[in-house]
Write a structure and sequence with these properties.
With 434 residues, the chain is an alpha/beta fold. It has 21 helices and five strands. It is globular, with a radius of gyration of 23 Å.
């Protein structure tokens, strides 16, 4: 009986250019791929969560891809910290491979798995696959992490060479996959989720024409000017190396956006407290207000600010919101309503198909002025000015707010000038007390 290794798919739901799978296959052991529907994560999700349906469809495709190679994907539902050690003991597994995840709960989970496997004499190895540079790979000369994006980006680009964008040639070692019988994929119903698809999942194909003109189209929500690949980067259905390599050849502006992704992953790794706390600790003393009616008006897209309302309605219906509009919506929440950024961050986390903790927390703290951004707290978007610049013909707004311009559309729930002055005054109080 040949010795086995496991490759544990997580946020890397593909076979090609997969760092951890490549290293498993090259180890000399026969490799069995597995995926676990993590009950610890699923327990907190709505039964209609479309991301679970996306993952389920993706796993079905991945399973078929393994079958075409004469192998199989073992699929489980439960707690990975229990399932992995059980599998290791049952099948006398010598090594478990995976790709690293940098979120605090994932690190805690992986530490538990590592400890359990060490006790029973099984190796556990992680690889870098989700980002181009991770952890301490891009730091200042004194070894401390960067807190500002621009110098981080400069150092990132200085360190980049062809090696970091090379694909992992999984195909060379594909013969080392463990030939095995087909394993049934549990249905969504069996997992406790709805099988009804209510939202569109963007294509995983890299749209070259959009990348080529990205800097000219990216800010206009009525235009199909963004790649919509974020859900695929989130779940690893495409390779970040492949996308970065194409972006580097095609459009620097788009390429820089991919560096932002690495930046926020690095910040989360070094500062996991930012999930609950402001990066700049002095801003943690801000006494946010809360009004249930105002909060609900924001959630429902009925604030009386049409660009904000269009964005929220797009999010609620599709699981997507244009990036320019995300900034306006988040700024409005924190600095017009003066509500705690964490409430908005959690709402996005629940609704966004492409939700990724590092970028979501980073983006919301950027909007609130309490994160790593170098800009001062008094950057406050005027939703009306933003609409005039980026949706001057109201095309995006009319698509999502059909009653705009009629008596059915609500009056603004807060007055811009007053809200801006209130926010500035509150921030000044906190900083003066420093």
């Amino acid at each position: 009986m040949e010795q086995l290794a496991l490759f544990w798919h997580r946020r890397d739901l593909r076979i090609s250019d997969n760092a951890g799978l490549y290293k498993a296959l090259k180890s000399g052991l026969k490799v069995q791929a597995i995926f676990i529907f993590d009950s610890q994560i699923l327990a907190h999700l709505s039964k209609n969560d479309q991301r679970v349906l996306f993952i389920h469809q993706t796993i079905q495709n991945l399973q078929q891809a393994y079958q075409k190679l004469g192998a199989s994907l073992w699929i489980f539902h439960g707690n990975p910290t229990e399932i992995i050690p059980q599998l290791v003991q049952k099948h006398e597994i010598k090594h478990v491979f995976c790709n690293r995840d940098y979120e605090p709960n994932a690190l805690k989970r992986d530490k538990s798995v590592y400890d359990a496997l060490t006790k029973i004499g099984c190796q556990f190895s992680g690889s870098k696959d989700h980002v181009i540079f991770e952890k301490e790979e891009i730091v200042k000369s004194d070894g401390n992490p960067y807190h500002v994006f621009t110098p981080y980006m400069k150092r990132w680009k200085e360190q980049l060479n062809d090696f970091y964008l090379q694909p992992y040639p999984v195909e060379k070692y594909i013969h080392n996959l463990n030939p095995n019988n087909h394993v049934e994929l549990p249905t969504l119903s069996e997992l406790g989720f709805s099988e009804i698809q209510t939202q569109h999942f963007p294509s995983a194909e890299i749209p070259q024409t959009i990348i080529q003109s990205y800097e000219n189209t990216r800010d206009f929500p009525a235009i199909n000017g963004t790649t919509r690949l974020s859900i695929h980067l989130r779940f690893g259905t495409i390779s970040i190396r492949e996308l970065a390599k194409q972006a580097l050849k095609t459009n620097e502006k788009y390429f820089n956006e991919l560096i932002w992704r690495d930046f926020y992953q690095m910040i989360l790794f070094f500062y996991p407290r930012t999930i609950e706390e402001t990066f700049r600790k002095e801003y943690g003393r801000i006494e946010w207000e809360f009004d249930e009616k105002l909060f609900q008006a924001w959630c429902d897209g009925k604030t009386g600010y049409p660009l904000v309302d269009a964005g929220m309605r797009e999010l609620n219906e599709t699981g997507h919101m244009h990036n320019r509009v995300r900034m306006v919506v988040a700024s409005f929440f924190c600095k017009h309503l003066f509500h705690d950024w964490k409430l908005g961050e959690r709402y996005f986390a629940e609704k966004l198909l492409d939700f990724e903790l590092a970028s979501n927390v980073g983006g919301w703290q950027w909007a609130a002025g309490c994160g790593v951004d170098a800009a001062p707290y008094f950057r406050i978007f005027n939703p009306t000015t933003q609409q005039e610049r980026f949706d001057p013909q109201f095309e995006y707004i009319k698509k999502w707010v059909p009653e705009f311009g009629t008596s059915d559309y609500p009056q603004p729930i807060v007055e811009h000038k007053w809200a801006r002055e209130r926010t500035l005054e509150n921030y000044k109080k906190v900083l003066k007390a420093e």
